Amino acid sequence: MHCYPHSINIEALLAHVPLFNELATEEIARLARGTREVVAGRGDILFHKGDMPTGFHLIVYGQMKLAFTSPQGGEKVVDILGQGQTFGEAVMFMDKPYMVYAQALSDSLLLHIAKTAILDELDTDPKLGRKMIAGLSRRLHHLITDVESYSLHSGRQRIIGYLLRDHLTNGAKVITVTLPTNKRVIASRLNLTQEHFSRILHELSEKGLIVVEGRVIHIPDVDKLRSYDR
Fold this sequence. Notes:
By secondary structure, the protein is α+β, with helices and mostly antiparallel strands. Helix content is 40%, strand content 24%. It contains nine helices and twelve strands. The chain starts with a strand and ends with a helix.
């Protein structure tokens, strides 16, 4: 993993982050001075569980996995994050070590925004504070939804929900979904074993509800898949 502080236009990237889109040019410039570029190759560990955060990260491109290892040695994936998403804000404010590790699932470019730079801007711009609170609230809602899904929904329902998560309101009848990473990681994200995940995909395929081509999954009838197993 390498850092290249001046090889990209950090100010331009920060200006396009929704979290910062109400900040003035001079405020963005101050944040940029507290920001560094981090290049992570596939498989690189960005930080380990127990490390102390010094800021939070923005994914410019690529994909990151947040996970921890169980006492039995198995991996539990907490989240899979992609371009434009941020992570680490909450733990940064808590002054506590990371509870997960972050690993690149593909070659990735990230920005690390220093906590000191964020705190300085929060002192001068309450709008940034409101946006960060809103972002953290969305993250908490997402977490509660996950816990509800694990507790109340069958494995089949979790997988169907995952496949349709980005197509709940657009009205499309036929869609194609590309899985963002391998099935083992997605299964862990859904709190399933890889075998259970594969078995359910096979069952849905046998029923004609999906057509699987590697990571690409074709769904010929969204309504039919959505209503299955209700």
